[in-house]
Amino acid sequence: MSAVATEPTEPTEPTGSTGSTGSTGSTIPQVRGLPVLGSLPELARDPAAFFVRCYREHGPVFRIRLPGRSLVVLAGPELARYMGSREGQASLGMGTLYDGLTEELGATRSVIAMDGPEHKRLREVMRRGYSREGLKGRLDDLVAITDRRLDAEWRPGTTVPVVDTMQLLVIDQLGTLLTGHAPLDYIDDIRTAVSTMLKVHLAKVRPTVMLRLPGYRRARAQLRALGDGLLRDHRAPADGVAPRLIDDLVAAHRSDPELLPRRDMLTALTGPYVAGLDTVSNTLGSLLYLVLKHPDVLARVRAEADAVFAADHLDDDVLDRLPSVQGAVNETLRLYPIAVSQPRVALRDLEYAGHRIRQGEQVHCAVAVPHFLAEFFPEPMTVDIDRFGDERREHARPGAYSPFGRGPHTCLGKGIADVQMTLTAARIFHRLDLELPSPDYVLRRKAAPAPGPAASFAVRVAGRRV
Ligand code: HEM
User: Fold this and answer.
1) Backbone angles phi, psi at 296, to 5 degrees
2) Which of 45, 96, 353, 380 could form an SS bridge with 60, CB 3.0 to 4.6 Å?
3) Ligand 1 pocket test: which of 83, 169, 414, 423 has the largest number of ligand atoms within 8 Å of its C-beta?
4) Is residue 279 within 6 Å of ligand 1 at its C-beta?
């Protein structure tokens, strides 16, 4: 265990409640904010800390005001169970939330945008390709891809911008493993297209005029071209070779074109980039910081990694021999959650924690709030990679830990992400000596399009160990 506190901050500036009236019949506490901007500045500074503060002050339901709109936030440990319950599933859904994003990609629908039985069916088609099983027998490939990126971009004596460089690594890994092609030439287009779409359509922190800018249009066209190229060049896997995500998608398109029509293949094929790029890169970036900031954690991570990579070949159970690395990944996901909240629409009038919410309201489900509550994670702001071990299992208490979201849209790629992040972190610390800008460096962070380290976060490659 490390006793050094991390930088995610406890809320320090209470602003109080105005007690204004909310939706039908009940009073939803209104979080006080600035005259025009409402709570935007605080939300943009540190969304997790903001929601924790609001939860402590107002309880499990509160309303926040943003420029031009307001939304209801649900929080508290009960939320995880509610989102997975029959009632929660019938009451909260995607509605039209992702329609703009889906249309941008020229599709009629995408898995994240759908609700109900059709969503379930499409998830089933994708389950194997996105699962941990899908990586069976391919962990050596994952490490080989990691090595080629470490050799290319993480050269001794250089200073590496962490998130950008991590994105190259993640694109190479996901592209090669899930679709058989690493679209490194498209990285800038993927970044521009995904980030703009998410900022305009989902986070709503950029105006729609951004979608008309030539740079964005070019990037979007390239993303479409990438999807078309993947389909055109696709070959069925050889006999005895396990199918990848792309193979399952093509097979589903042929056998059930109504479920997966040609024009929706693009969103399905580029899904790993939209869903995996920021999430994995940002988490791995935060993880580098967390580990480098805590030399005791670094020593444990490195000892496990060195032992595992002493073998010529990785078997599929290798993660069992990396408990400290997994602890570091889990602790990063707890303290630096990407999925601070899941956006939803109330599909019907609903009641949560004694408050009525009207059909059509936009709701944010702040599932990560319990990550910062001492009743679940004692000394919650302290980095402690042993919380998740068999003796303590702090994360296993109902509603405590939801890094991959909750409910029917729970991350489909969490099996892959877990293996990918654990092995990548292990390989990086096995092969490289990295340094933070200074021993007292404090991570600067951004909130959009997904929370994570600021683009300015860089580490120095002091040397190669292997
Ligand atoms: C740190 C890594 C990751 C985190 C924290 C994360 C988190 C999440 C969360 C919270 C959701 C649910 C969103 C919602 O309900 O509104 C989600 C959905 C999804 N994720 Fe991930 N994700 C990660 C990595 C990945 C990766 C690597 C992939 C694919 C290779 C992936 C594929 C998906 C897909 C396809 C969905 C949509 C599922 C559905 O709508 O049914 N994710 N992810």
Assistant:
1) -65, -40
2) 353
3) 414
4) yes
